[in-house]
Specification:
With 81 residues, this protein is mainly alpha-helical. It has two helices and no strands. The chain has a domain of 42 residues. The chain is 59% helix and 0% strand.
């Protein structure tokens, strides 16, 4: 391996963990908010990082009864101008 290729590989290995960290944050933030709005612990979003568990958790999230109380839209009175 020539020195130029080794330097490129070393630079890539230094930057790659930063890309992984940014990707994980970008992926976890929406799931954190979804679990929170569903009425569950937002820490469940950390399970989305595990490949098969994350896929199963999407199905769990889609088909469970959410613990939130729906808003009664008939009692809303718009502000008078």
């Amino acid at each position: 391996m020539d020195p130029h290729t080794m330097h490129m590989f070393a630079a890539m290995m230094a930057i790659f963990p930063i890309f992984i960290l940014v990707f994980v944050v970008v992926m976890l933030l929406p799931f954190w908010m979804i679990w929170k709005k569903a009425g569950f612990s937002p820490w469940l979003s950390l399970l989305m990082v595990v490949p098969l568990v994350g896929f199963i958790m999407l199905y769990v999230l889609a088909f469970i009864d959410w613990k939130v109380v729906p808003v009664n839209r008939t009692t809303y009175i718009p502000p008078q101008v």
